[in-house]
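Support reply, case 0932

Customer input (verbatim):
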Amino acid sequence: MGVSAFYWYVDKNYSLFYKLDIIETYSTLLFIPVIFLYFKEVTGDKSRLALKNSLFFIPPVLFATISAVCLLCLGEEQATNFMKVMIEDNGDIHFDNPIYYTLRLLINEYTYSLLLLLQALSLFVYAIYRLILYRQHLYDFFSNIDDKEIKHHWSVLWGILAFLILTFVVAVMGYALYIEYEGLVSIILFLYAAILYYICYHVSCSHYTAETFAKELMLPDQALLDKDMETLDIHTDTDHKASIYLKFLPKLEKVINEDKVFLQKNLRINDIANMVGTNRTYISHILKDEYNCNFWEFINRKRIEYAKEQVQQNTELTIDELASMCGFSQASAFSRTFRQYEGKTFSEWKKKAAFC
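Our regenerated output:
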C-alpha cells in the first residue's frame, strides 16, 4: 500500500502499476482471511467446517488469480494500456478480446471493493460474536482479565472496522476518486497502510489465546471452549439441588465475607471451589442462582464495596493504593470497574460522599 501510494503521487508509471496491482490484490484480499484465522485461534473456535473457512479464502484467491493470469497473458504493453484506460478513461474499453472482457468484469469500480466489503463485514460480525463469547468465558473463571490481552483482540476488531469504513468510502467514490479527486488516492493508500500496520501490531502483541486459557485452567480445549456455561446444568432434582446449595452456600459466604479472598489479585473460580470443597460448576450455578451474576461480577462487586469502606475510614487513600489493596491488577481496572458499578467515576463519587 505504501509503495503504491508513493508511486501514484510521484510517477504514474502504468507498467509498474499493473504489477503492483497484482501483488496488492493478493495481499489485501488475503489479509482478511488471515485475520479470520487469527480470531479462530485466539478465541478457541474449534469448528471444523471446511465451508466456513473456504468462504473466506476461495473467493479472494480465485479473484486475484484470475486477474493476475489475465494481466500476464496480455503482456507488458497491453496490460499497461489496459490499466491506463481503466483509470484515465473510466473503464471505457472495447471488448474485442475475451481477456479484456474478463478483466473488465473483475477490475472495475465495484467488484473489487464489493468483495473487500463483504469480506470485512463478515469478519467483523464473526469477530464480535467470538470475542463476546470469549470474554464471557473469561468472566466466568477469572476475577481479573487485564493480563489476558483481550484489549489487543478488540483493537484488531476496531482496525477491521476502520478498514471496512475506508473501503466503503472508496467503493462509493468509484472512478471519481481517480479522476476528480486524484490527490486523495495517495492519502487513502497511506491510510490503508496505516490501518493494516495497526492491526498487525496488535496481532503481534497478542500472546494469550484460548489455548493458554485452557492450559491455565487445566482443561481440555474442547471441554472448555465448546460448552457455554448455560449447558453446564446440574442434572439433579430441585430438592437435591437445594441441599447442595444449603451445604456450599454458607462456606462460600464465609470465604468471601470473613476470609475476604476477593482481595487476592489473581483469584480464579477454581481457587474458590477448592476452598469451599466443591467444583467450579457448582460455584458458577450458586453465583448465577443466588447472586444473579458471573464470577467476575461477583468478585469485583465485593472489591468495590470494600474499597468504599476503606475510603470512609481513610479519605487520603489514592486510586493506586485502593487498586492494590482491593485486588485489582491496575488502577485503570479499578477506575473502570468502579464506574461500571457506581455509574460515576471514583473522583465524582468521593466528592459527593457524605464524609468528604
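We compared this against your earlier run and they match. Two observations from our side: The mean pLDDT is 79. The first helix runs from residue 2 to 10. Please reopen the case if you see a mismatch on your end.
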